[in-house]
Amino acid sequence: MKLFIRKEPRALALQSNGYDLVFENSPKPSPQQDSKVSQPTAVVANVPNGTLGERGFVEITNSLFEGLLGLINLNNHLFVGLITNVQKIGFPRWVLHKGGQIECKENIFQIINVDFYCLDSDAFDPMFTDLSEQGYERLLNEHPCGDLKKLFSDGSFYYSRDFDISNILQERGLFNRMDYTIDNQDKKFIWNTNFISEIVQLRNRITIEEKPLFDGGTFLTFVIRGFCKTTMTSNLDSPTSLTIISKISTENKENMFDLQGIDKHGNVANFIETEIIVTTEQYIFGYTQTRGNVPLSWEVTEGQLLHSKKIKLTQDPAFFQAAFDKHFDDLASKYGVVSILNLVKPKSESQEILSSAYQACAENKNIKITNVEYSSDLLTKSSHKLLYILKQDIYEFGAFVYDISKGIYVGKQTGCLRISAFDSIERPNLVEKCVSREVIELTTAELEGFEISTDFVNAHEKLWSDNNFWLDRIYNKNYKNLSKYKKVYWKLFSSSCKVNLYDPLHAYISRCMKKMKKDFTYEKDITIFAGTFNVNGKICAEDISDWLFPGNSCLNDTADVYAIGLEEVVELTPGHMLSTDPYAKQYWEKKILQSLNTRGSQKYIHVWGGQLGGVVLLLFIREVEYSKVKHLEGDVKKTGFGGMSANKGAVAVRFTYSTTKFCLLVSHLAAGLENVEQRHNDYKTIVKNIRFAKNLGIKDHDVIIWMGDFNYRILLSNEEVRKCIKNRDYAKLFEKDQLNQQMIAGESFPYYNEMEIDFPPTYKFDPGTKTYDTSEKMRIPAWTDRILSRGDALKQMSYGSAQNLIFSDHRPVFATFKSLVTVVDEKRKAEIASDIYEKLTEEMANLTEEERYILLNKSDINIEKEDVVQPILPELKKGKKLPPPSSDTRKWWIGNSKQVKVLLDVDATKYMINPRRQVNPFIRDDKEPFFVLRNSE
């Protein structure tokens, strides 16, 4: 990155990857700027590439610039923060080439120094030219951003341009895209969010042609705080790297490092997320733990003894239970099952009260809590005692493992520890180190070709020791100077220090594009196939065409989207870290994809797959439609044995098809005739805990399809059920179907739709036959396998079962849908935007700065473009208010506030509305008259 400064009129220009970003102080408020907004505004000026020198800009060459930190407003001045010195500190992922050369695929940099250049004054420029020790002290003490410079240069801030450093490996995935990073990053771990947010908005406005240059530059830098480091083992034949990433949360901005409890929003101080990543040539492993202050409402007062501290609960636990619940709901939405490890030692009566209140709140929330009163020495010398206590949690949570050579996910972490301690960094770190080593040993024992050497153990110990040193250093430095640092953090996080960016060029283009929206958007129907199958732990050698391409599906041949849910793909074995068998999932992926691609000329691609224990969700999309699919992400939730086991649960995926949001789920709910309430609880647990980026839930989508083995049964005797099946009297069976009764009562799956069932129950058969269960248990046949849907844009076309696939004790079920989606023609949109951009830049080439400002801020936009019909939009006269909204008696379009009257020349005593017409009045129906005689049939 290069920095250029123009003195008159004052402006700063950044140049990176061939892209110029020019900031000017706003001479006057923009027409689009809200007069109520108190933040100052900087203007992003449009300067043709390669013309900075011609326009009076001079390059600053006395410093290196590694990236943009952001913009800030202090003391009525605007500043641009720049990173001026870094060092590479970590590389979680890498590739080994022939000859032993290691190529780093992900790099982490530690910030060594930052500088802040003023946008609207040259008064501070001389401070950057005096390189003496006295000059540096003057810069720290006299520059308005001196304390921010000191903060960001203390060695505790890190960033990466190769991956989303705010999220753990399991959440961010193995492929980095800037759009995905921006949409999915965990902002509570980004320390320069206020500085950079307007730059992110700027990126969203620029044209498609500009984005690759912008993204390839160093304009977007997302900074975390904590500790990061990678260390390599010395074995050159089989290199292994260990990376630790500890991130300090900014969630409790007012009391960042204070000895205080939870606020009303569920935020706590000193919350830290720590991830250990192990990479070999074949595998990549990740494990996450969290720690933070005890999430209760408490504060610290000085005790009677010198330097003693006394904890005081500020409220009764009942008053902050809601905040407590919010804190753990947020944790569960990100990490899955959360288990508390409380390290607070009841040295005094006040700490005993704190621990008791913690226990009570956890029990009210139904969260497992383990109280451990070990000292640091005991944790070091007798770590086996702690591991024995945590054994169940460690096994149930599992670990994230990806097999690089095979390209498959071997394991997933579905829960984490939430460690709490009072006034201690060391003890939580010792716990995390012990658990980390135990998990690595247990996991690698189940992986071929992965051995833990003495060198590996030593590197692991050293890494956690360094982690403790740096976190303790940050904590103590801040705690000893709380009032001083609170002032600095106020500058970081206060909205009054934010700078608004006004980008007249791209704002003008955006206004033009809104007027021309109809020229690059259209509506169309896409077809969706949803299928669910409990395969009973078996591999299918049979042809599955009857399931994937049913004759009565109302599809022309194949669908645009295939969503396949499988249950019991593996038999789960207790006492294993990797409770997922990836090979069964891989087998079904290949089998289904092969079946789809041998059907016709159109090819399918497997775009997403997720697994939780024996539950698998696979998503396939036509290759020609894939370019319209964005924001693909998944989530899982365990429900077996109170949420601790993966034998039951749900896997979900969400994506956006152009502008329409889809959510697809497969779940396996509690079994048993009597377990209706448990199934209902499973449903509620899944709805509550399945979460995507920006905290989107299942309901926050336009289209929802939920399928799986729901395990609902029929409340009739075995004899009656089998008799009804023989007589095809499915209506009588459906009346006694538990799921049907639950939906009618508004309990489970409210507002979901299910098409009429006209196929026999799909469970339970003698495997390999078409005969219902003849075993000793003689289970009552039932429709355990179901497909439900929700969304106005969705229309179900068919619902059926493939009766000829008989290897399992279930039968596969399918449903087909049509969904109306609004499609953006991205190519056409880019062409229009590019054309407008070229015409504008051509028109502005010979204009003065003032003339450009007038042109880009004029309210009447008239873009003449061939083959584009300009929409005629009514303009409100200045000062004229919008008319009042319409009502049942008054319509604004009639004018003069006249009353609305509708007269029907029909004798209501003789005629009535025709009941045979379409219920929806907007569906045209020319076959039936509007009115019929009242006595007619």
UniProtKB/TrEMBL annotation:
Its main location: cytoplasm. Pfam families: Exo_endo_phos2, Syja_N. Residues 148-477 form the SAC domain. The keyword Transmembrane does not apply. It is an enzyme of class 3 (hydrolase). The keyword Protein transport applies. In the central section; belongs to the inositol 1,4,5-trisphosphate 5-phosphatase family. It is found in: Cytoplasm. GO terms for molecular function: phosphatidylinositol-3,5-bisphosphate 5-phosphatase activity; phosphatidylinositol-4,5-bisphosphate 5-phosphatase activity. It comes from the Eukaryota. This is phosphoinositide 5-phosphatase. Its EC number is 3.1.3.36. Gene3D superfamilies: Endonuclease/exonuclease/phosphatase. GO terms for cellular component: cytoplasm; membrane. GO terms for biological process: endocytosis; phosphatidylinositol dephosphorylation; protein transport. Keywords: Cytoplasm, Endocytosis, Hydrolase, Protein transport, Transport.
